[in-house]
Write a structure and sequence with these properties.
It is a single chain. This protein is an all-alpha fold. It has helices at residues 3-18, 22-35, 40-52, 56-69, 74-86, 90-103, 108-120, 124-137, 139-144, 147-157, 161-174, 179-191, 195-208, 213-225, 229-242, 247-259, 263-276, 281-293, 297-310, 315-327, 331-344, 349-361, 365-378, 383-394, 403-411, 418-430, 434-447, 452-464, 468-480, 494-497, 499-512. The longest helix has 16 residues, at 3-18.
Amino acid sequence: MTTDEVSEYNKRGADYALAGNYEQALAEFSLAIQNHPQEASSYYNRALVYRSLNEYEQALKDIQRVIELQPTYGQAYYQRGIIYYLQHNNRRALYDFSMAVALNVQDVQALVGRGLVYNVMEEYEQAILNLNRALTLDEHNAGRLGAYASRGQAYAALERLQEAIADFQSALIFKPQDVVLLNRLGAAYTDSGHPEHALEYYQKALELQPRTAFTYNNRGEAYRLLERYQEAIEDFDQALTLDDSLATVYYNRGLSYDGLLETQQALADYTLALALNPTFTAVYHDRAAIYIRLKHYQEAADDYSRILSYDPGNVMARFSRGTMYIYLSQPGHAIEDLNRSIELRPDFACAYTNRGEAYLYLRDLKQAARDCRHSWNLDGSHADHGWMAQWVDMCSLRPDAAVPERLERIATAEPAAYAAYICRGVAHFLEQRHALALQELDYALALDLDRWDAHFWKGMISASLGKDEEALSSLERAVALNIPSILLTPLHWLQQEHADFYAKHAMPFLNRA
């Protein structure tokens, strides 16, 4: 058979392939190979058909034959790279795209392919280098092949969101009806803190494909971040109507219900999300937060334990479970978790404060003082740390004239925080300005009625003013809220100035402790 006759088979095969008649195309290319087995282009053409039919192993055999016959056939390496990419064999794909580039340094499609593989391998800087090179060589062709879209993905992964947005906008010029691309652009706007700009792209995507669950989910997330919770819930409902197996959508709807303070609906959705995906650790964190608000501390501790079963090095879960153990009156377990948190993150100031509180329940004032001071030294931006360090010190030594000034200084770290009001209130009390002291403590109570600090110190001030019933009520409330007994030590201050109250009321508190 002549070369011209082989070309005729290949031409007819190509026409059949373009028409979608793959069976006849395979027949023509096979005849060409049968009659001229040394012609590389026939194997190459048949490989393309096999690839279109997702018969990757057959395609690879033909491509291998092409390379044996013609080792410098760059397109063969490129096509084999595509097949390996489709098979998720990224290292082999990368090798073949690199071979294509080595044979032709201006091979734009191989550079784009290599960028695509680097993206999948999460080697984003390498992806950007290859895509930059492709766009520099031939912007239009590279853009048509998806270089802007791929580079936008790499920028988004690196949180270079403005660059990602610009690339996704450029990519839409080539594929204005690409629903995935519209979603990626919307997500980049959302992640950059502008979910309001994302809405129009999600709307375009839904106009193109109205029955796309992930677009409803993404638009719902934009609405949620804009605190348009009802619209968010409607979109999440629609997504779940289309696909009720999406754990992320249940989670996002739960967050929206949480935003509306519809606690039971939020809990139900978090639980459904976890039933679908028990390893979805973010859901445990948010469900635990609801349990804490409900004072269901054991359930919250259980959720943190589940996180740790999947991620033993999760510092926040370890710290949070340790905190739950404090609430559950298990200071020993709390210290174990907080010790581990500090091992994992030695500069974690809050872990020292909470460990100091656990030591207070064990009446280890020396260790509690050490932890609270260290916490304040690590992070002076939180009034809580400084306040607790000062209170612990006041349990050892009667405050001197410098203490009110220190408390005022601590309060300046967070002037509107609960602990700042306590600091100012105690400072005023030590300076005998009782009315101002009570006012500051009332501000603290308005922020949080369930912390023992304000109740205890309001009891101290009321006792100093001879308001015994109010003092008793406040002190009983502090005890009911499980104040560490050692923090009742300042009641001894009342022994001289208010001996009757001390003997009749303060001593029973101290003895009970």
